[in-house]
Amino acid sequence: MYVPILPGSAVEAARATAYLCGMVFSSRLIEEAVEAFSRLPGIGRKTALRLVLHLLKEAPDETHRLADAINRMRDEIHFCKICFNVSDAEVCSICSNPARRHDLICVVENIRDVMAIENTQQYTGVYHVLGGVISPLSGIGPDDLTIEPLVQRVAGGQVQEVIMAISPTVEGDTTLYYLSRKLSSYPVKLTTIARGIAFGGELEYADEMTLARSLTNRLPIESYLHTEALSPRPPQQSEETNELNTPER
């Protein structure tokens, strides 16, 4: 199919239309299944088609078992009423475990971070899942996160230390600073994981050894904020300097 030359996103839309029109299905049910799979992150239409055809070749019991597992996960999953981690009950297995240190709370952005830290097998406390970080550009403010429930947990008087295991990004540091201000009036030790995690990196992609060392060598939050404030920023070059540094062709 011929796609006319159009500006910007119009070109992408035209190409997508041409591609979709080129994929012909002999069954409306197959097409609907491909459409459903292709909505998943990282799954294109070709991969979705391969998955659908694979399920079609499987025994009906296997396909029904997969569909039942997805339905049960979506309908029966809970979020822990204490830490907001995923759970099969109202209270997750970590918060209900008497062997965990309930006076030590590790604050993380999302559920994937809980899984990443648990894989290190070095942490014995409990968690608090914020559900994201403060990001004004994305329209996410403090009221959109589980910050108030965290403050209430600390105000209960049983917490001795709060570890800020938040990804070292601009938004993460903004959230860290906000939390430190909210919790500063309580007699609790505030620390953050050591910066074995590179600035700008995501916590979930760090390896287990780096995460384990970061938890072991955590820093007082005041020291971290002071260090960040004094960290020199790379100087911005002027256009004239850039022109001088550009090699001649």
Q: Brief description of this entry?
A:
The chain is α/β, with parallel strands linked by helices and 249 residues long. The protein has 10 helices and 7 strands.
Structure explained in plain terms:
By secondary structure, the chain is α/β, with parallel strands linked by helices. 45% of the residues lie in helices and 11% in strands. It has helices at residues 9-22, 28-38, 45-57, 60-76, 111-118, 147-155, 170-183, 208-216, 221-230, 239-245, and strands spanning 78-79, 86-87, 101-108, 125-129, 161-164, 189-192, 219-220. Strands 4-3-5-6-7 form a five-stranded mixed sheet. Helix 5 links the parallel strand 3 (101-108) and strand 4 (125-129). Helix 2 (28-38) packs across helix 3. The protein is elongated, with a radius of gyration of 24 Å. The two termini are 40 Å apart. The model is unreliable at 1-7, 13-18 and 236-244 (pLDDT under 50).
Mean pLDDT rating: 82
How is the quaternary structure best described? single chain
Which value, in Å, is the CA radius of gyration? Answer: 24 Å
User: Looking across the biggest beta sheet, what order are the strands in?
Assistant: 4-3-5-6-7
Could you name the ranges where pLDDT drops below 50 across 5 or more consecutive residues? 1-7, 13-18, 236-244
Outline: elongated
Pattern of helices and strands: HHHHEEEHEHEHEHEHH
Provide the β-strand percentage band: 5-15%
> Total number of helical segments?
10
Q: End-to-end distance, in Å? A: 40 Å
Alpha-beta classification: alpha/beta
Largest sheet composition: 5 strands, mixed
Fraction of residues in H or I helices: 40-55%
Number of E-state strands: 7
